[in-house]
Amino acid sequence: MSKDRILVTGGAGYIGSHTVAVLLDAEYEVLVLDNLSNSSFESLRRVEKICGRSLEFLCGDVRDSNLLNKIFNENDIKAVIHFAGLKSVGESVSNPLKYHQNNVEGSINLLRAMSDAGIRKFVFSSSATVYGDPKTVPIDELALVGDVTNPYGRTKLVVEQILGDVAMSDPRWQIAVLRYFNPVGAHESGLIGEDPQGLPNNLLPFISQVAVGRLEHLSVFGADYPTHDGTGVRDYIHVMDLAEGHLKALEALNRIEGAEVWNLGTGRGYSVIEVIRAFENASGKSVNYEIVGRRGGDIAECWANPTKAERELGWVATRDLDQMMRDCWRWQSAYPDGYGSE
User: Across 208-251, where does the E strand assignment appear?
Assistant: First the structure.
């Protein structure tokens, strides 16, 4: 017997599609809303193939109030997982108004429609960027936020603050805020993975596209950071561990009063050079890279203290760096042009 119907905004994207797969495997009914501006419906077709179950899809935007009201009026939605938004740090610096309109106004619109429909269970896709340049690592949920280094991170922080205000105004809201560290990897089937539009913004798709010959070389931004090899250190988490964290958060909503925050990370940091070497070992390919100057807004090191999620959600990341690299390569080598390979 199927469980509740869940609305997943941005469900055709990288993290969204993997989370939809986890939800379907857990017997939830899933309705995906996505405007396909930076994603592909092909990802959802493959999710159905992986899971052997169907989902519902609507092409639309969370800024469309009439559409949201129609969705909530015509479907018995029990909870919302909100991924929809723009995520390029660089683009957010050059076009901050676009990011605030999509990420902040879109979230407000969604929350208003949910409130009108009497739906108050909400899982929010946030980011470790809200911590800015941390004073110490590992970072726990009590670390200071607000010293954000780019507009993308600021939009996540603003939505977090709005969610806190909403929860304070009405105790019936049950909200899980998930602060991601650095998602990488792909589903173990190799059928779905990260497929950025245009030039990748993140390290792993850039590395893998160099390995398959789509890009000539990787630029490593800075080798003079105060880290063990001079390159930036980050907490890389397998996208399937991250997706499973959303399932745990969803199932914890009934126990939540107000808004709660959890880090989703592994608790271990790896440098850019270590990630390159691990990918070369997994793929058998040499990755051509060159050291260039630091990039504005980057920080030296950032990794999570994930013990709160383990204690309160019963969640822990189980997939190591080698598996992240193997799964990433399985996806990229099978589909060198992403969802456009077929």
Answer: 218-221, 233-234, 236-238
pLDDT digits (tens, 9 = 90+) for 207-227: 999 999 999 999 999 999 999
- The two tokens of residue 253 are 């909503």
Strand pairing partners for 139? Answer: 304
User: Which helix or strand (DSSP H or E) is residue 182 part of?
Assistant: strand 182-184
Alpha carbon distances (Å) from 220 to 15, 41, 216, 285: 25, 32, 13, 18
Dump pLDDT digits (tens) for 138-188: 999 999 999 898 999 999 999 999 999 999 999 999 999 999 999 999 999
Whether 301 contacts 218, CB under 8 Å: no
Residue 292 Cα distances to 221, 224, 231, 233, angstroms: 5, 10, 11, 16
Q: What is the pLDDT of residues 34-58, one digit of tens each?
A: 999 999 999 999 999 999 999 999 9
What does the alpha-carbon distance between residue 199 and residue 212 come to, in Å, rounded to a whole number? Answer: 14
- Decide if 270 is catalytic: no
Nearest residue to 19 via CA among 287, 249, 284: 249
Give the active site residue among 131, 152, 225, 236: 152
Rounded to 5°, the CA angle 231-154-91 comes to 65
Residue 323 burial (10 A CB sphere; 0-12, 13-18, 19+): middle
Contacts of 169 (CB under 8 A, 6+ apart): none
What pLDDT, on a 0 to 100 scale, did the predictor assign at position 201? 84
Kindly list the structural domains of the chain, giving each domain's residue range(s) and its CATH number in brackets, ordered by start. Answer: 5-186+236-265 (3.40.50.720)
Structure tokens, 339: 């969802």
What pLDDT is stored for residue 298 in this prediction? 84
Strands 233-234 and 270-271 come out as antiparallel
